[in-house]
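Hi X.,

You mentioned you wanted examples for the new student's onboarding notes, showing what a folding record looks like when two proteins sit in one file. Here is a clean example. The first protein comes first, with its sequence line followed by its structure tokens.
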Amino acid sequence: MKTLLHTCCAPCSITCVDTLRQEGIEPTAFWYNPNIHPLKEYKMRKNTLVEYAASIHMKVIMENEYGLRKFIEGIYPDFDHRCGFCYNIRLEAAAATAKEKGFDSFTTSLLISPYQNHELLRRVGEEMAEKYDIEFLYRDFRPRFREGQEMARELGLYMQKYCGCIFSEEDRYTKKKKEKKDGE
């Protein structure tokens, strides 16, 4: 089975790729992440994925769009519900690309994160599968999240501290500030 793996970053892809390969599925990574900001962060994550993919002999399809304006326009003015828009644009691009390039299915490394809205991700994946007439290969990769993070550290991969959008970075700092205040 040929599967297109939408890949948010190299660390999150490690055990996704491993799991799929154990099942006899050879994934091709798909980079499309217009949500990641700022540009320096976007480039760091992209370059880390390219280097990691080469080291494990995994093909990568690049949709290299730094999409700050498109992302902000898509979530404005409802910043608090940005994840749904984010999942939609990325999984739609993955489904369309998978269909266009003759893949049997598509999935996403976002399914490994315990910090993502897993059920919303699954629902969006299934909607895009129906829209583009291609299978959404659902896997709950979350049980291997910590293992993948540890492997990424051992490999010396760049590891980000927030989901990707500028608002998730803001949430990270706001949470730290609140935790510090609560701990005083």
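Then the second protein repeats the pattern, sequence line and then tokens:
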Amino acid sequence: MNRKTLAAAFPLTVPVLMGYLAIGIAFGLMLQSIGYGAFWALLMSATIYAGSGQYLGVSLLAVGAPLPQVAFLTLMVNFRHLVYGLSMLEKFRGMGLRKLYMIFALTDETYALLSSAQAPEGVEEHDFFFTVALLDQSYWVLGSVIGSLLGSALGFDTTGVDFAMTALFLVIAVGQWKKAGSHLPALLGGAATLASLLVVGAEDMLLPALAIIVIALTLLRPRLEGAHERKEEKQCP
């Protein structure tokens, strides 16, 4: 990571910095409230690095859930990352061993940034992607540790702090909506999620919704790529 790449990547990640500090602190507070200190916050955020999964982990640790239940619930919560990964195959091609870290670090927010990000002129694209991902995780780790230390020193009521993650996702989603060439994927995702919720209920909606979205986007891919190309042609001088 050189200075030029860092200078190009950091401004892109500022919204994630603000959000990850907030939700990382919230996670650290929640983890501290059940008796796990800063070391555990650091370890979980460095090795698991899955916001919703870590929030779920706090509840599972609190009740002493058995490992099979932990594994199943983690798979259900993070299954959407399979879709993220498939859409990033071309962007990560040729990254060598760094590709393994990019797969690990592909959170919702990092995916949202990388799916539309373009490396500035003079900055190597793969270095740019890697730096964005690394910065995002550093914010999450920092927030987690700060939250745990604050919880240990001051004591907090953690009721409702888990909404911070939902708020961050909404902020990034609004930004993506404004920049998107077509709103069809977002509308399709919303419709598929709502249909799945109404048909199978909140507890079982995730997998059917993801299946509908993947199939629909695959069928509509030529149309969406055509719309993207037309947008780029209009932007060219």
